[in-house]
Amino acid sequence: MSKLNGNRKVDKNEPIATPEMIREVREKFLEDYKANADLYESVDIEKIKQNDFYVRRYINYLNQGPEKGLEQMKKAYRWRKEFNLNHFDQLTVPKEMYQLGALFTYPPDKNGDLLLYVRGKMHRKIELVADRIKHYFAYHVNKLDEKAGREYGWSIIIDATDTGYANADLNMLLFVFETLRTAFPNGIKYFIIYGLPWILNAFATFVLQLLPSNALSKIRFFDKQQLFAFVDEANLPDFLGGTCKEVYRRVPKEAKDIYSLAEEEGLTREETDKLLKPSLKYIDNVNFVWVDHI
What we know:
The protein is an alpha/beta fold. The protein is 44% helix and 11% strand. The protein has two domains: 19-83; 90-291, CATH 3.40.525.10. A five-stranded mixed beta sheet has the order 1-2-3-4-5. Helix 1 (19-35) packs across helix 4 (65-83) and helix 6 runs parallel beside helix 7. 28% of the residues are buried. It comes from Dinothrombium tinctorium. Residues 91-248 form the CRAL-TRIO domain.
């Protein structure tokens, strides 16, 4: 048994990872990598070798310690390889989705923590793009997490204004929370829901009942006053009453339109029109920028 598995009682908010724990977990993880190299990504292995953060977070998560932390670490990095997280293809997402500006990073909050915005009313449960949206979301979280490079270094703001049952997607929400829990432990600081309409109160209550207590502790429901207290007006996007001029609709130069991608999936133009119709009013064909990489 590891000498690092003491039964010392600790405050649940107190980080428990010591340099010795980090060294031991890293060594054991790299032993597993040598035995199962095909299950891991070399780029992830290099980060683990060079930065304690990518080991420490698993030890500190729920104060689970080195043994459980090591097992979660193995699962997380194997999932990253299986999910192809480091190789997100931005051209698998249709141009129209980028023009929606439904998912993007933006300037930090008042504490300097990074932010990812999600516009709930833009989302629809469409099988054609469901997996692509999951990869798109995970890509953004991964990029945000790497940029922060520390525990509790970023938050997600869900703008639920004008959302309804057509936007409620339990499968997608469970994917989001499970991804944050298993692949990015102790990464998110707050999961903020702004402007939730009363019609979705029952749905929100049901979702909250499915989440563990540590996930619930991250969730905040904000009104406008609370949002402006959290993020400076100059850093907020226009649809939330902010004055930031940074363009958040970023479209890759080679992005394909949804008709091209739908045709690859065997859908007719008429079928694609039906899927696209609810989102047409939100697609902005003017206020976006072409970029090499999102």
